[in-house]
Design goal:
heterotrimer, C: Rossmann fold, eight-stranded mixed β-sheet, four-stranded antiparallel β-sheet, 10 helices, globular
Chain lengths: ~350, ~290, ~325
């Protein structure tokens, strides 16, 4: 197999503990008829090399915006107003479209929620899989066998025969497998998965999660897994970042965050997950209130209006990311050592 | 995601949305201004025209533009500017009448086709396709030979040739809506057919149709001008743009002004309505633009 | 007396034209729901659980008369409704209502919330003014100023509340809820489910919940039934089914429902393969090609429905 540009470039950066992508103080605005929405505000996040990072939050929290900004697919009314996304010496936040074309589909690839819309409905799976290898200077037969090899990697039964079928002839679960195969075909350093299991049934959801886990271990790439489903995140991810109203409010290792959340929002979100409530109950917990208006983000803590633990300081002072044990950080004044001492 | 964010915020009014779209869209503004000018001049034509559009020898024959005659005069000394303004009235009348007729018939047939039994749908589709297969002008010529040239003939030809386009769009929309959850919900509540059609289906079909119709206005006007130019539409001396062009065409070696005067409004109206249609689409269906 | 008594419900879908089918010597339709029976008592909640294509939504459509069933009996509130005429339905629809899957998409987009919630009253020739709208919005905890909004101006949770208000407008005896939490954020799902519980406690409405979400079933239903390929594979009191599933498919579904505990990661049984098409059913037990516990007999013998101690299952070798 010819070495792809991806593996070649990856070799230039030192392969030790430094993260694959590091996002610093990233801010993104959306220009809408109703005014400017500050959708992402000062996001700082690192995607560790060879690990799975989960991005969790409810609709409107900005998790998809963040994912799309990392592959240069933001809507045309979006604007990066500050910060950077560093990956191997590049700043992706200020990339030109031409530079993106070189990186996208080679070092970074993406799978989407709806596998039907991300496959071309009028061409066969095989043609699509061969076409995306257009950068490789190899013969067609070789591209074809490579396509089969990857379809086998995603455990698609009867892979060779699947090259001749059209997307609509496959079930939703199989289509998502094909999308994963296509995304991995160029051996990317980073795979972004935007709610890849949301459209699938429960048993298929598990299959895809387990598949992603296996493939990630085999290929050693980093995965950014965007989901609102806490169960799949705990199942798949090594690290997790929780987002609320355009900010990362907590991040850390999945184990720590899921067992001892440091931010009241994370705690409230976990409380609401019916899967985590052991005893059957008719009165389910909720988070009263609504998201703040992101045209005018609140001065202090973004969550304070809905927070049961809010105190005077939360109104006045925007909390920074306080560090807790084992690399866990949370954007809540309760984690300020000074607060505990008092 | 952006949609999710936006849905949590109060929706701005139509005016605010229009202004936002137009603020970043210069061609849209040009379109609205042009259409307003043309429609306004058509409505107020009798008060605007400096001369009687059919009066001859208002000045020298085939004169170039001057302070008295802004677009010059034609071979029998009629004021071209007055004739162009009066022609706009005819063009607008044809467009309004024929498109209204085509829209109503298209809506009705499209709804029947989309909701009715399969055999009726197939039959209607066959008729639509048969009608669409004639070139408009050839079809117009055929109709003219049967019922004779007149303003009404022009409107009839335009209406008949447009019906299949609208009916097909309505049919497609209806088929999609038929299985939409809110239609099923209404049916499960036992809503009557008239209410289902006119309250729940029609308003959702109408929007895209009106945008399309506004973009079709220039097409209709070109058809009118074309038929009139061939002598198959509006009869002289009534000042249709096609008639003005035809008159001017015979004397183009002597003076280009009648032809230039007759074509300017057609160009302007085409630009105006196309730009306006595009802006309307952005205002009413912002998603369409994002996808494109 | 049960409020709803469904016996041997069968629903067929056309697959190809009759002529084409005759020429190919194939059947022109297939059974999407085959022989389903259940009862629902007043004030109780039953959960129908299944993956897409299991036929659960088809059952809902048959119950509200949008889909014709064949060879079965559906008794609702003491009368057989399986052969009801148009006029019968007009009367029946006052007593049963439905919440549709898509919170926003099931609301007519050009109507205001006021018109939407009072639509059932209007259809039945009752007064449908501002007072009625405000009363209904009050029932679901929405302030009166929502009356002038349009569906696209609502969040998912608000739209869902409007849907509940509309379903309650005629004070029905049966409420069918198709995926009541679909498309809602976790923090809002609880709100909607609590609302349903509250409504049931107040009015004694019976609720049929159709869902693929087991967590929801566990918390809000009294009885549950699991569907696979148009058949019930297991049925019983929710608590018991969760504690001791008898059918392997139930067990697999429960296992595919991660409890977001990173420690429990390795204990999952993932089913291989996908749901077969109801057009080409497997031989023997429908589930045997995917069943981790399948034995030889499962490939040839179609298990029959076994009922004992208020629970039922369709498995030759129950767990």
């Amino acid at each position: 197999m010819a070495p792809s540009t991806a593996t070649h470039q990856a070799g230039e950066t030192p392969a030790n503990a430094c993260p694959l992508v590091s996002i610093e103080e990233l801010s993104v605005d959306f220009d809408t008829p109703r005014g400017t929405i500050h959708a992402l505000r000062n996001i700082s996040l690192e995607v560790p090399k060879g690990k799975v990072l989960g991005l969790v939050g409810e609709s409107g929290c900005g998790k998809s915006t963040l994912a799309y900004s990392m592959i240069g697919l933001l809507a045309e009314n979006a604007k990066v107003t500050g910060g950077s996304i560093r990956m191997g010496g590049h700043d992706l936040a200020h990339f030109k479209p031409k530079a993106w074309r070189k990186l996208r589909g080679t070092r970074i690839s993406m799978i989407f929620q709806d596998p039907m819309t991300s496959l071309n409905p009028v061409t066969t799976i095989g043609k699509q899989m061969i076409d995306i290898q257009y950068r490789e200077p190899v013969r067609r037969a070789e591209k074809r066998s490579r396509a089969i090899e990857f379809l086998e990697q995603v455990q698609l039964p009867d892979a060779a025969a699947k090259l001749d079928v059209y997307p609509h002839q496959l079930s939703g679960g199989m289509r998502q497998r094909v999308c994963i195969a296509m995304a991995l075909l160029t051996r990317p350093d980073l795979l972004i998965a935007d709610e890849p299991t949301t459209a699938l049934d429960a048993t298929l959801e598990m299959q895809i999660v387990i598949l992603l886990r296996e493939l990630q271990e085999k290929f050693g790439c980093s995965v950014l897994f965007v989901s609102h489903h806490l169960g799949t995140v705990s199942e798949l991810c090594d690290e997790v970042a929780v987002m609320y109203a355009g900010e990362v409010v907590e991040r850390g290792a999945v184990r720590e965050v899921f067992h001892a959340p440091r931010h009241p929002y994370t705690q409230a979100l976990f409380d609401c997950d019916p899967a985590r409530i052991r005893q059957a109950t008719r009165q389910l917990p909720t988070i009263p209130g609504t998201l703040p208006d992101l045209r005018r983000p609140p001065e202090g803590c973004a969550f304070r209006a809905r927070c049961t633990k809010a105190f005077s300081r939360c109104n006045a002072e925007h909390p920074p990311l306080y560090a807790a044990e084992q690399g866990q950080v949370a954007r809540c004044h309760l984690n300020d050592p000074a607060e505990n001492a008092a | 995601m952006t949609d999710a964010t936006q849905s949590l915020l109060p929706e701005p009014g139509l005016l605010a949305r229009s202004l936002h779209v137009l603020s970043g869209n210069r061609t849209g503004v040009i379109g609205f201004v042009l259409v307003a000018l043309i429609v306004g001049s058509a409505i107020f034509a009798p008060w605007i025209v400096p001369y009687d559009p059919t009066a001859i020898m208002t000045g020298p024959r085939m004169a170039p533009p001057s302070a008295e005659h802004w677009l010059g005069t034609d071979n029998i000394g009629r004021d071209i500017f007055s004739r162009v303004i009066a022609g706009g009235r005819i063009a607008m009348l044809v467009a309004a009448a024929s498109l209204t007729a085509a829209l109503s018939a298209g809506l009705l047939l499209g709804l029947i086709s989309g909701l009715g039994p399969r055999w009726l749908d197939n039959l209607l589709l066959l008729i639509f396709d048969a009608l669409r297969s004639f070139p408009t002008i050839v079809f117009g010529l055929a109709v003219v030979t049967i019922i004779g040239p007149s303003l009404f003939t022009v409107m009839l030809v335009v209406a008949i040739t447009s019906v299949p386009i609208y009916a097909r769009i309505v049919r497609t929309q209806t088929l999609a809506l038929k299985n939409a959850e809110f239609i099923l919900a209404e049916r499960a509540m036992g809503v009557g057919l008239p209410r289902l059609l006119f309250v729940h289906m029609l308003p959702n079909v109408l929007g895209p149709l009106l945008i399309l119709a506004s973009m079709d206005v220039p097409l209709v006007i070109a058809t009118e001008a074309g038929l009139s130019f061939l002598g198959m539409g509006v009869r002289p001396p009534t000042p249709s743009w096609g008639v003005i062009l035809n008159d001017g065409y015979n004397f183009i070696r002597n003076s280009p002004w009648p032809v230039i005067g007759g074509s300017i409004p057609i160009i302007l109206i085409t630009l105006g309505f196309t730009f306006m249609g595009e802006a309307l689409r952005d205002i009413f269906d912002p998603k369409l633009r994002k996808a494109g | 007396m049960s409020l709803l008594e469904v016996t041997d419900l069968r629903i067929r879908y056309a697959r190809q034209g009759r002529l084409k089918a005759a020429l190919r010597r194939e059947s022109h339709d297939f059974e999407a729901v085959c022989g389903v029976s259940f009862t629902l008592e007043p004030g109780q909640t039953l959960g129908l659980v299944g993956e897409s294509g299991s036929g659960k939504s088809t059952i809902a459509r048959a119950l509200i008369g949008l889909k014709t069933s064949s060879g079965c009996s559906i008794r609702f509130d003491g009368v057989d409704i399986s052969g009801a005429s148009g006029r019968d339905w007009a009367r029946l629809r006052r007593k049963m209502s439905m919440m549709w899957q898509d919170p926003v998409g099931s609301l007519s987009p050009r109507l205001t919330v006021k018109s939407l919630v009072t639509e059932p009253l209007r259809i039945n020739g009752l007064r449908a003014g501002q007072t009625e709208a405000e009363r209904l919005l009050g029932l679901v905890g929405l302030p009166a100023e929502f009356a002038t909004r349009y569906p696209h101006q609502l969040s998912g949770g608000q739209a869902r509340r409007v849907g509940v208000a509309r379903a309650l407008a005629l004070d029905p005896k049966l409420l069918i809820a198709d995926e009541p939490t679909a498309g809602l954020d976790m923090s809002v799902q609880g709100e909607v489910l609590n609302l349903l519980t509250e409504v049931q406690a107040r009015s004694g409405v019976a609720i049929l919940i159709i869902t693929h979400n087991l967590n929801l079933v566990r918390h809000v239903t009294d009885q549950m039934a699991i569907m696979y390929l148009g058949r019930f594979v297991e049925q019983g009191p929710t608590e018991q089914v969760f504690a001791h599933p008898k059918h392997p498919y139930t067990k697999a579904l429960l296992a595919a429902n991660p409890g977001s505990d990173p420690e429990a990661r390795d204990e999952r049984i993932a089913l291989s393969g996908e749901v077969p098409s109801p057009v080409n059913r497997p031989s023997g037990c429908d589930f045997h090609p995917r069943c981790p516990w399948a034995r030889e007999a499962c490939a040839t013998r179609d298990p029959s429905w076994v009922e004992e101690d208020g629970r039922g299952h369709r498995c030759l070798f129950p767990l």
